[in-house]
Amino acid sequence: MRVRLLLLDTVLCYLIGSINGAYTLVKLLFNKDIRDYGSGNPGSTNVYRVFGLKKALISFAFDTLKGFLAIKLSDLILPGDPLARALAALAVVAGHDFSFILKHNGGKGVATSFGIGLALTPGLTCCGAALSAVILIITRLMSLSNMISMGVTAAATFILRYPTYISVLYTILFIASCIRHKSNIQRLLNGTENKIEFPHKDK
């Protein structure tokens, strides 16, 4: 029975993750495909650059909610089960990153990982978000701020002796995000990464 429930939970979380916030929002509001604009990435940063802050915040909130709901769904199906939580988290991020709706295309998992963190370790996750905001304000490099924040948060779970499954999960999410940011990392090394403009007009 537990195996079946784990499988059900994992599949449902993947399906939830596959509903991309940036793509859905832009399609509903403008009948356009966000992948045809800006960087081509269906994520909140690209929505910000192309359509402005308000639309980006809605997109980010939607994808954050996916991660949060995945953990809550897991706790509903198998209350407090560490394996169920971990599989749910990985599945919802996999759905976001490799959405079957977008033909296995997707975002970079930052907002969805943030939602997972809010459900599992809200205090630590908010500290990580604050760090990300500070780095972003100083450097105006979204990719750098996201990766550093996720890396520091993952490291902090080991230092602060969080449950092992959380430390392992956050480390996997950090590594996955770095892989999805591969092109950004290359541009950072080359000094050609695009910087965020402040302020940015909405469309």
Structure notes:
With 203 residues, this protein is mostly helical. It has one domain. It has ten helices and no strands. The chain has helices spanning 2-17, 21-30, 44-51, 53-77, 82-97, 110-120, 122-139, 142-159, 164-180, 182-190.
Topology:
Blueprint: H1 2-17, H2 21-30, H3 44-51, H4 53-77, H5 82-97, H6 110-120, H7 122-139, H8 142-159, H9 164-180, H10 182-190
Helix pairs in contact: 1-4, 1-5, 2-4, 3-4, 4-5, 4-6, 5-9, 6-7, 6-9, 7-8, 8-9
How would you spell out the order of helices and strands? HHHHHHHHHH
The helix fraction, in percent, is: over 70%
> What is the strand tally?
0
Number of domains: 1
Beta-strand proportion: under 5%
Q: Mean pLDDT, as a whole number?
A: 94
Radius of gyration: 17 Å
Describe the sheet with the most strands. none
Molecular shape:
globular
Low-confidence stretches at least 5 residues in length (pLDDT < 50)?
none
Tags for this model:
203 residues, mainly alpha, 10 helices, 0% strand
Provide a quick synopsis of the model.
The chain is mainly alpha-helical and 203 residues long. It has helices spanning 2-17, 21-30, 44-51, 53-77, 82-97, 110-120, 122-139, 142-159, 164-180, 182-190.
